[in-house]
Amino acid sequence: MAKGGVLSEGVLKKIILSYTYVAIWIFLSFTVIVYNKYILDRKMYNWPYPISLTMIHMSFCSSLAFLLVRVFKVVEPVTMSWDLYLKSVVPIGLLYSLSLWLSNSAYIYLSVSFIQMLKALMPVAVYSIGVLSKKEIFKSETMTNMISISIGVGIAAYGEAKFDTWGVILQLGAVAFEATRLVMIQILLTSKGITLNPITSLYYVAPCCLIFLFFPWVFVEYPLLKETSSFHLDYFIFGTNSLCAFALNLAVFLLVGKTSALTMNVAGVVKDWLLIAFSWSVIKDTVTPINLLGYALAFMGVAYYNHSKLQALKAKEAEKKAQQPDEEAGRLLEESEGENNGTKKNELQN
Questions:
Q1: How many other C-beta atoms lie within 10 A of the C-beta of residue 266?
Q2: Least crowded by CB within 10 Å, which of 12, 59, 254, 259?
Q3: Taking a C-beta distance cutoff of 8 angstroms, is the pair 97, 209 a contact?
Q4: What global pTM score does this model have?
Q5: What are the pLDDT digits (tens) for 282-321?
Q6: Is 99 helix (H, G, I), strand (E, B) or coil?
Q7: Residues near 309 by Cβ (< 8 Å), separated by ≥ 6?
């Protein structure tokens, strides 16, 4: 009974911790999205400068990441040559800067709920780019599922009350760049045995983003900001906003490290539905029945895709476990043969 009680207590503790990590990630992700919308939307804080906001985030995150890696040594830096940095990290930084720029720009034109619906296309983009780059195997069943997700998002777009073509183009561009970035991480870093957690990712990638964003900022937003001489940077608003963005990266590290990437995907679905409900009830964005019907269809497609990925992962793990006894048996056989040969040699010498 005592052992059973201890075991139950340990399992209960793990469950509570897992739900805590999920809740922290959902809260921070939810907060960052709503906060960005609040700052950028012309009807709210009315500061429609997405490049500037992204640059503030990257400056804050890269500074904190530098302190955590180099000063406080919370995380060890990754051994990386300049050649590898220029060929692998810099292209990823470019894609990340474009993805953040366009996704933040979309908040000026689209509702939070509709943006979350459009983000359901992420698996479609990742799979399609993966197939084109030969990192994924083309399967007709998977492609059919991708088409069903796309149809669902298309129905949601058809039912959108405040449809804005430019906003949709921006968000789809952000999805495309983010999907390409995820595939490039596999090709340029993971395949070379380099893994970056969120802190080291910010340490290496954030400065690149800052540099890449500086050039369009000089021509696109700097002249506008210069004209708005009455504007003074609100350190509380932008400081807390940047802190939330940095904390979200740490929450990702905590959630994936302590649970799994699949848990994060499931939590992401919960977060999306919460954001849609919040957008409708608090921000008063219009969410139509056709919106919900289309997103529900896309949601089922995404859920099936995640389920398929989980089954494939389980099959790989089972295959590895099945191979382990064979490898151990082979090693034992080699050892026994070596011992027998050694014994025969000793007998011949005697």
A1: 15
A2: 12
A3: yes
A4: 0.85
A5: 988 999 999 999 999 999 999 898 888 878 877 877 777 7
A6: helix
A7: 262
